[in-house]
Amino acid sequence: MSQDMKTQIRRAFEQDIEPARPGLAEEVFAAIPIGIAVAPGFLGWLHQVIAYVVKHWLTASLIGAGAVAAGGYVLATRTPDVALYVAYADHQPQRPGALPNPWQGSPNVIFEGAGSNFDAGAIRLDNRTDGQITVDQIAVDIGPRHYALWGKAIKVPAHGILILTQTRILQVNPFQTDFDTSESKGQTCTPVSPDVPVIHLSVNGHRLSFEDTHLVLTTGGHDLGNCPGKPSESHPWEAFGRTG
Amino acid sequence: MTEAQPLSDLIRRAQDGDRDAFQEAVTPYIQLAYNLAFTIMRHRQDAEDAVQESVLKAWTKLSQLRDGTALKPWFLQIVVNECRISRRGRWRSVIKLPELHTAHARDSEDHVVQATDLRRALSELSEAERLVLFLHFDLDLELEQVGDILGISAAGAKSRLYRAVRRLRPALLDGEEPLS
After folding, report:
1. Of A140, A190, B81, B121, most Cβ neighbours within 10 A?
2. Chain A environment of B22 (Cβ under 8 Å)
C-alpha cells in the first residue's frame, strides 16, 4: 500500500464527511442526564438511584430501567418515541386563512403560543409514549435567524400533543409576530431562500435536531404573503420526523 | 486490544464517577467518533445522535474498561455498535438532506473529478468495506484494533481491507502497488 493511495483514500473520506454542528463535543457531555452515572460502588449507586428517582420519578418510570452491568448498576435511557410536524398558521384580519388542525383548544393539546390571530410557523410534537416527557431547549435556526421563544421545560403527558408557535404579536397592521418564519429573509417574494429551517429540542435530555427540508416554516423559502395575489401562507401539519 | 497498559489516572477517576475526568478523557475522540458515525450513517443528524448515544453508553459502561484496554478503540467500538443499533430503526428522520455536499469547492476541477470518482467508488462499497478502510486509513488504527472494533480477527480485517482496496483501485490514480 503506497502512501499516495492512503492519502487519496483519506482525502476522499474527508471530503465525504459533512462537518458536525459546532459545539457537538460540549453538547454530548452536557446531555448526560443526571440519572446516568458509572457505579462507584453499591452505596454510591443506591444514593444516586434514590436521589434520582425522588427527583425524577415520573421520568424514571418512563425510561425505566436499571440495568445490571458488570461493575454495578446503571440507569439506562432511550430516546422517547415522539413524532414531529410543522405547519404554517396564517389567520389574521387581512387573510383569515385556515388554522392547522389540531390547534389551540383541541383535545390533548398543550398550546405554547399567544393570540387569536396568527402569522407564524408552528411546530407540533406528539408524545407517543405511555408516560410524561419533558421537552426543553427548543430553538429554530433559519439561516442566520435564531428563534428561541419557548424558554422553559414543557411537560407533555402521555399521548399528549405539544404545539409551539408565536408567543407575541409585534404589531397589528401590518400584522406581525415574533415567529413569522415566512419573513425570516425579509418581506419579499423573490429571491427564494434555500435556507433549511432546523428545529432543535431535547426530549428527556436527548438532544434532537430536525430539518424542515420541505420549507414549510419558510413557506417555500420566500414570504408567500408578499407574492402576487397575496396568497394565504397557511399550510396544514406535515410530518417530517420521528423517533422510535 | 493491543495496548496492554494500565488504565490512566484520568480513566480511573472517571470510573469513580468524575464526570469532568470522563469528559477530558473522551473529548479527543469525539471528532473521530463523529467522522466514523457519519461514514456509517451517511447523515449528519443521525451521526450526531449516534455520537451522543455513544457518549452516554461509554459513561454507563466505563466500569467495564479494564487494564490493557485502550480507550480509543473501546469507545469507537461503542460508536460502531450504536450506529448499527440506530440503523436498525430506533431513530429515523423521515426527510433527509441531499447526499451531495458542496464543500471543498476550492479544489481544482481535475482534482474534483478524480475525487468525485473515488467518493463514488467509496459510496458503492459495502458498509463493512468502507468501515475497514476508514478505521485503518483515516483513523490509523492497526488491523488488530480494527478487528476488535468490528468484531472480527485481524486476518479477517486484512482480508476485508484487501477486497475494499481492490474494488477502489479503478478510481485511484495510477501507479499503485499491490497491498502488502
Report:
1. A140
2. 29, 38
CATH class of B108-180: mainly alpha
Distance separating alpha carbons of residues B122 and A13, to the nearest angstrom: 8
Question: Looking at B46-116, which runs of residues are DSSP E strands?
Answer: 91-92
Write the pLDDT tens digit of every residue in B68-88: 778 898 999 999 998 888 776
Looking at per-residue pLDDT, the higher value among B132 and B46 belongs to B132
Q: Do A8 and B34 make contact, defined as CB atoms within 8 angstroms?
A: no
**Domain match, A97 and A140 both:** yes
Smallest Cα–Cα separation from A206: which of A32, A23, A75?
A32
ipTM: 0.70
How far, CA to CA in Å, does B73 sit from each of A56, A184, B15, B26, B142?
Answer: 34, 44, 17, 11, 10
Contact A236, A85 (CB under 8 A): no
Query: How many angstroms away from the CA of B172 is the closest CA of chain A?
Result: 7
| A82: chain B residues, CB-CB within 8 Å | none
Domain that holds residue A102: 82-239
Residue A13 within any structural domain of the chain: yes
On whether both A59 and A104 belong to a single domain, the answer is: no
Predicted TM-score (pTM) of the model is: 0.47
Domain assignment present for residue A244? The answer is no
Q: pLDDT per residue over A15-52, tens digit each?
A: 778 888 777 887 788 766 544 444 445 555 555 556 55
